[in-house]
Design goal:
Length: 192
């Protein structure tokens, strides 16, 4: 997904860079133009091994506020499953054109009926057990996932952040193409 965005930037002769983050900024490659630079981005994305856990969007926005002096298009690729993201996203969206590429894994939307199961929260590392054979537990889980998804969509709309939802089990090119076509249509209507 990041590779496709980087390649489209080089086709438009735009500068492109990357910031890879977890609960900390882990890797930075400043924006530049050119095919060679984009090939380095692709290599770095493919070989990146994160050290941290979790998602610190506030840390990312602080870094971008310090380093980006001009208005920039920021594609933020995440599942946005992190606490307290409203303020950092609002600050980022006030200074830059933010596009939220929300990655959704359908297998995380509902619990399978497999009995007692142990889960590990990838953000915190906390382990817990759930009886997935309980219809009430599965229904509650599905309801909470849907509520979180709707809350994220509402937050992004309220902050005027465009969202490109992408599923891990599907084609990610088509949602990006729809987004770019929509942007092109908006710009042509404004005469830009």
């Amino acid at each position: 997904l990041a590779a496709v965005l980087a390649m489209s930037a080089v086709r438009n002769n735009d500068r492109v860079g990357i910031v890879l983050f977890t609960d900390r900024i882990e890797y930075i490659l400043p924006p530049r133009k050119g095919r060679k630079h984009v090939l380095r981005i692709l290599r770095d994305i493919l070989t990146f091994e994160p050290v941290g856990r979790g998602t610190d969007i506030a840390g990312l926005t602080n870094h971008l506020a310090r380093t980006l002096s001009q208005k920039t298009i920021v594609f933020l690729i995440s599942d946005f499953d992190a606490p307290d993201i409203e303020r950092p996203l609002k600050i980022l969206a006030q200074r830059h054109d933010v596009v939220a590429v929300t990655v959704e894994d359908p297998s995380e939307r509902e619990l399978p009926d497999i009995g007692l199961a142990r889960f590990v929260d990838p953000e915190t590392g906390r382990t817990f057990e759930i009886d997935t054979s309980s219809p009430r537990v599965r229904d509650d889980f599905g309801r909470q996932v849907n509520e979180a998804r709707e809350a994220r969509k509402h937050l992004l709309r309220r902050l005027a952040i465009d969202e490109v939802p992408v599923r891990t089990d599907g084609n990610y090119i088509e949602p990006l193409l729809r987004f770019f076509r929509s942007r092109e249509t908006q710009l042509s209507r404004r005469g830009l």
